[in-house]
Design brief:
The complex is a heterodimer of chains A (about 475) and B (about 400). In chain A, α3 packs across α4, α4 packs antiparallel against α5 and α10 packs across α15. Chain A starts with 5 loop residues before the first helix and ends in a 12-residue tail after the last helix. Chain A is built from 19 helices and no strands. With about 475 residues, chain A is mostly helical. Chain A has two domains: about 160 residues, no CATH class; about 280 residues, no CATH class. With about 400 residues, chain B is α/β, with parallel strands linked by helices. Chain B has a domain of about 240 residues: SGNH hydrolase (Rossmann fold). In chain B, about 40% of the residues lie in helices and about 5% in strands. Chain B has 15 helices and seven strands. Chain B has a five-stranded parallel β-sheet with strand order 2-1-3-6-7. A two-stranded antiparallel sheet of chain B has the order 4-5. In chain B, α2 packs across α7, α4 packs parallel to α15 and α12 runs parallel beside α14. Chain B is globular and about 80 Å long. Classes of the chains: A mainly alpha (about 475), B alpha/beta (about 400). Chains A and B meet through α1, α8, α9, α12 and α17 of A and α1, α8 and α9 of B.
Chain lengths: ~475, ~400
Amino acid sequence: MVFNSLTFIVFFACVLGLHSLPLRWTTKKINLLVASYLFYAAWNPPFVILLWVSTVVDWYAAQGLVKAQRQTARHAWMLLSVVANLGMLGYFKYGQFLLDNFTALMSAIGIAYHPAHYDIVLPVGISFYTFATMSYTLDVYLRRALPARNFLDYALFVTFFPHLVAGPIMRPTELVPQFEQTRRATADQLRFGLALMTLGLFNKIVLADSFLSTVAERVYDSDRIPGALDAWAATFAFSGQIFCDFAGYSTTAIGAALCLGFAMPDNFRFPYAAVGFSDFWRRWHITLSSWLRDYLYIPLGGNRHGARRTYLALMVTMLLGGLWHGANWTFVAWGGLHGLYLSVERILRARFTSYRPGPVVFVLLGLLTYTLVNITWVFFRAKTFSKAWIVLRGMAGQNAATRPILATFSLLSVAAIVGALVVTHWLMRSRTLESVLARTPAAAVAVVWALMAFAIVIAQGAGSAFIYFQF
Amino acid sequence: MPSSISSSEVPGGVPDGAAQRDTRVPSGVHDRYARQTAADRPGVAQPVPVRPVPVQPWGRILLGVLALLALLVGGWEGYWRNFGVKPAYSNTYGLWAIQRRRIDAGEGNATVLVGASRVYYDIQLPVWERLDGHRPIQLAFEGTSPLAYLEDLAADPKFTGRVFVGVEPDLFFTGHEFRGGAVRYTRKESPSQYIGQWLSMRLIEPFLAFDDPDFALATVLERQPWPERPGKHVFPEPRKLGYREADRNSYVWDKVADDPEYHALWQRIWHENLQPSPDDPTPEEALKTERVQIARAASVVAKLRARGVKVLFVRMPSSGEYLAYENSSFPRARAWDKLLAASRAPGIYFEDYSELQGYYMPEWSHMTRTEAERFTAALYRVIIRDFWRPDGGSSTARTTAAR
């Protein structure tokens, strides 16, 4: 089920009620595990089996890793986990993509190959929970952690509903220890958790769904050729939409976990105030970028084997990171552009080691970063390369004979929301939400919280899925 | 006891304590709530996250929020009730799915109504039920050609009943689908969506008048008189037109007829939307689309009839500017007559029957509730007399071929 639904409100109220009963800790964990399976099954019950497969394979792989005496056996257990998880991901997420590309390749060399259509439904959140369970085996393999002591804690780590389908991608060391001891949210944790959930849902339902998504759709999903203003407005709208959608999900998830007494890590840190791309990736989807860094970039050599190997590792990591987002070459292009940006930044930093920008240049570099990030969003949002080129040509003012697509209200809403978003990110660049809240008068906190809740109610969201569910 | 998986147990890992409560401050961030993220700790096991609660009187804040929220929501509800709105069921895909599933649940021989908004506003199910003894299944959708829904019925062997196909020319012959996703939704409806629909119909929709897409925040803001962008004329979007009951029986809101301002607004909406637009297809494209839709209809009717399903096309009444627009854009001889000829199905063109004319349509397209009740009774009698005789026979006396 999605967080922005009536079903979830009722579900969450039941979970909270059950969790607050004076039951044994093990019983409470079983309740949470069952609730998490129900949460997942509410989309498509049979896909719970995949969750079980992923859970069981990695549990036994980690046990095998600990017992293995020889290095080859350790390799084998690690490979079992990686192959099982990536195999599942490959079959469900990339099967059709691989088949299409194979067909195109055959066609290019003159072989007419017409396979049957794959027609497989992508299980929600498979990219997230396969990465979470793989990190368990890989941490044990890399001797960073020991396996969980009991299966219940481990299964709950994989399945815990707040992070299950769209992250934050949690590491076992972050969550399993929390299940080992009795935890119950304090009254203030519960209230602050509810405030975070309101903030997250406000981002998703009001900003992303009610205002920004339609603007992006009107340009990106239309046959009309956009001029410069429409192309930029739609791309800015998407930049706001994807942040509000995904950061909104993460904030809601963090709030939901906190209501139950569990801590989840930050996934965003005001990314549109990033200066440079390494800074951007330390602020955007932190749990994915750090996962790719720890389990892909560093094993590929990282920066330990000379410049050429470093750039190769960087590009491979970002290209695969792009592909992780979806089975389409446009996502690979998105990742490739980010890899290119990171490489160029690395070269510039090496060449100008002593350069320290002044405040104006610093802000200008930040705006340049945001602009270049928007260029990458074109490939992320466009369904095809031809559409991406049309929008990019529009952004460059190169589309001839265009007619306005977006009305005044759309332009104003993008300017107001995305403008406010970017300014807020800059104001919060070196702060935390908690520190700002602590300094704000209680009455103001109450008014803003109530207004956000009111906006959620009157926005009448249609329960649309979060963008990252499709990944 | 330390966690079996905590990095504190790993040689060379993060020191004890930090693993459980990592409060080190990332570079460049200076406040008491600052904490590191995984971005600050490359290549190590990540410790249990820190999630501090800012110091505030959260209990009092929450009470204030609940009080203020109740006031705001109450005020919003009061505002729309004062505007004349009352609670009703939303026309969701979930509501449609409930009706569609009746066919799978033993009502495969029922009479099904497909079409666009005129079918669900002008055909009153209680009147039909009183005359027929059976309540039809209402599967029409506003702004949407019924062909996709007809194709869905044709593909369902459980359906063996009768289909009433409302024809609104500007939708039927263009294939326009404003709400075309109901079939897909019904097939893919998740347990969560099913439960959400069930809960909404019991906890929200019967009680809140503002729970209507016409009063959603973004919709209300968007229809304010914003200055027009040069070269971009904004056509007014249709406003709330009516109410729906649990089985999708619908009727036009009294305000459309009784409130002169709202009445005029609705007429202006149609007036503007019926004007030519630069986005309109060329006449050649429109004609091609029309032929495609007629071919689709012929194909789907053939499938249904092969299974013994009776199909009846009904050109639903319109008046005023709307009728003039339909007559000029989709002339009867070119569109309707060709539809009947191609599909070889019977049809009722409202202008052929005196008893189907002269009903009051305040905005030229939909009847008031009382008029719809009269129209339903008259139409039902025509249908039973000429097409779906109770003895099982049918006449095609009024088809184009016979005229």
